[in-house]
Amino acid sequence: MKNILIAGGTGMIGQRLVDSLKSKGYSVKILSRSPKGKDQFFWNPTSKEIDESCLSDVEVLINLSGAGIADKRWTAKRKEELVNSRIGTNSFLFSIVSKMPHLKHFISSSGINCYGYKEDARVHLESDPFGTDWLSGLVQEWEKSADLFGGHYKVAKIRTAVVFDKTGGALPRMLGPVKMGIGSALGSGTQNMPWIHAVDLVRLFEHVIEKELIGAYNALASSDTNKEVTRTMAEVLKKPFWFPAVPAFIMKLLFGEMASVLLLGLKASNEKIKATQFSFQFPELKGALKDVLK
């Protein structure tokens, strides 16, 4: 089995992926700013520090690092954090690639929001151009930093949608109003939200490892409207679904520029990853939410 090193392995998806890979017999090590246990090793990409003892046998390097897009308002300082936690970590890992003589495959997280939000009805393929908004530009530079590895190694970029996991990410915040019985659509409610169950995202990363895939892949099970997602949450939790929707101007007051992520939608295709013989365990919205919220 392959020797795998994961940056960001202590995060929501990282922990799930580490546990699953270990259960399959892979040797997995984790880079952490605060290492705990024999499988975790210190790194600080900001200060360019790393425990080099974990590098010599690495065959697959995965970077899941990245500050949460929707965790805070996009101030100038926050934007800098979003950039450094993605582009900075990829760049640092590439700078020490000579310490990994057995490296064959680099896998980087990326974002489904790379296409922009101007064409809500279009189903985006991986070959489509990047959008022109700030977030699309961030993802484009993020993928460029991953492509630094492309000269000598296989490189895969996983364009991840909203992840359904009750332990973290966007879902717990979306569930808050629904649990209180005041669930409502945001803005028009017609904006499409690409999503993927956390179990399927972990399976997709494992599939990329096992098949040694290269290139960009949209990681989503489906795209459903904000109204459909919120209403289905309410249905699963047996809570009321309220109207009218939360007005767009209130969202902009609350979240500033970041409100665009919530108010504007996009659709994307998952046919490319499915063509590699990957199948989704949770392809439908209600089934996915039922499993997450059970």
Beta-strand percent range: 15-25%
Low confidence ranges:
none
CATH class type = Alpha Beta
Q: Kindly report the oligomeric state of this protein.
A: single chain
Distance between the termini: 34 Å
Largest sheet: 8 strands, mixed
Word description of this protein:
36% of the residues lie in helices and 23% in strands. The protein contains ten helices and 15 strands. By secondary structure, the chain is α/β, with parallel strands linked by helices. The strands form four sheets. An eight-stranded mixed beta sheet has the order 4-3-2-1-5-6-8-12, with helices on both faces. A three-stranded mixed beta sheet has the order 9-11-13. It has a two-stranded parallel sheet with strand order 7-15. It has one domain (3-293): Rossmann fold, CATH 3.40.50.720.
Summary tags:
single chain; 294 residues; alpha/beta; Rossmann fold; eight-stranded mixed sheet; three-stranded mixed sheet; globular
Give a short synopsis of this structure:
This protein is an alpha/beta fold and 294 residues long. Helix content is 36%, strand content 23%.
